[in-house]
Write a structure and sequence with these properties.
CATH architecture: 3-Layer(aba) Sandwich
CATH class: Alpha Beta
Order of helices and strands: EEEHEHEHEHHHHHHEHEHHH
Low-confidence stretches: none
Radius of gyration: 19 Å
Distance between the termini: 10 Å
Structural class: alpha/beta
Helix content: 40-55%
Oligomer: single chain
Number of strands: 8
Mean pLDDT: 92
Number of domains: 1
Strand order of the largest sheet: 1-2-4-3-5-6-7-8
Strand content: 15-25%
Largest sheet: 8 strands, mixed
Length: 313
Amino acid sequence: MVAAVDQTADWGVQQIWRWRGYRCHWRVTGPEAGRPLLLLHGFGASSSHWRRTAPRLGQLGWRVYSLDLLGFGDSEQPARPLSNRLWGFQVCAFLRQVVQQPAVLIGNSLGGLTALTAAVQQPQWVHAVAAAPLPDPTLVNPVPRTVARWKRRWTRRLVRIVLHLLPLELLVPLISRTPLLKLGLQGAYLNSVAEDRELLALIARPARRPTAAQALRGMSLGMALRSQATTAPALLHGLQRPLLLIWGREDRFVPLSIGETIRQQHPAVELAVLDGCGHCPHDEVPERFINVLMPWLDRNLGDNRPAGDKQRR
């Protein structure tokens, strides 16, 4: 059982890192000599969403980093296409320039897809990947390997037109300042979030920035037009590192059946199912999340796990 530690959205020492001219926010906790572990948030969230997990991991002896992906949290929200391909490169650069050694990557939802992407792009910088869970529409409707050039061209034009016409500059502030935000957030959790003001604030604050709408438009464009090589099915086939899937049995956003299908198609992938939680097991049931994660890391990292974790076991 992990001992209780202080848990707030302001955990860790927070800093700014510049990548390709963009301002990127990150934070770190745990002993400097600890083995590095990088936490990656999901859609609409940020590094602060690891409030209930990062301090515990740091207490176990890990050097725990977390990065706000471009478009999220306190990182810059650029008006450009954003996708897991770009976020994967951002993560790899962060490992090279800031962490300066290979790390374990752990991602929630979109962060899990980004962790998988980074591990395929530059496997020499990644020891292992845990995704809780792994979302991607192509896991349900795979992208054809070959698409006629004319069809691809018209698809791109149609997507650009639709996203240009969507009044995101009106919709994003509306959602972030009304009960719609709480309603959407509740869909990710099995238990009520009505009294969790800190959770509501950490999700609402980035969405209320004046550049939030342009970033959302860029994400929608980038994810809709990405190549087949950067979809989850292709990435899973190219993965050379151990992968753990952690799934909330009551996940309403990404059904458990998707995780079970991945496990059937990729026998080397491990799947851990947590009862009594939804789409954010790291925040909803952090103790059980860590109790599933640690034994898996022990099996895949051996004696290279942090000293604090060895003592716990």
